[in-house]
Amino acid sequence: MSNTNTSTTNTTVANSSIVTNIAVLVSGRGSNLQAMIDNIENGNIKNANISVVISDVADAYALERAKKHGIDAIFIDPKSFANKTEYEQELVKILNSYDTDLVILAGYMRIVGKEVISAYKNRILNIHPTLLPSFTGLHSHRQTLDYGVKVSGCTVHFVDEGMDTGPIILQSCVPVLENDTEDTLSERILEQEHKIYPQAVKLFIEGKLKVEGRIVRVSK
Ligand code: GRF
Question: Does the annotation mark 128 as catalytic?
Fold first, then answer.
């Protein structure tokens, strides 16, 4: 096992000489999971291992992607628990059993609660398909088009207890075009997601991210 990351209240430090165990939480197709797998397999992200993919949706295609790469793929049914706390306690139990150092949300359609946040403080990342703090929550492409902004993009951030509110690590911009539909905009943004999410994970693993309140300092 690993235990690469020493997290203090405000700082996240990783030792790049040991393997970082990553757990990925998903609910759907898993293209960001795939980007992460590819970046680890092609050596762009070093000293990392995706040890488990956990889905809250039984037939999430992301689970198939994981299996194809020999990664443990687990479905946990939130409905089989009395409440969110119990569901998350089970989640934490599984994450701990995989010696998880870093949790990545990749299209995980739930708000992460206290149980997981406190167990993995400053060690949970998410990607959101807008330039935060604009258009948080669901239907972000619809919100973007309806508002009429001319530039959009995506954001990788640390996860706190709010919805898409944690400290921002990286962002990338794309233009919003006159004839865009949710599909065309989403496709343009997704291309950027697949670049900056692995980049952020690499920075985390290399110990280059330091959280100071809301600000994430990225060292060279
Ligand atoms: C992505 O657009 C991501 O930004 C958002 O959910 C979508 C997940 O897509 N959080 P995928 O499952 O990674 O293909």
Answer: yes
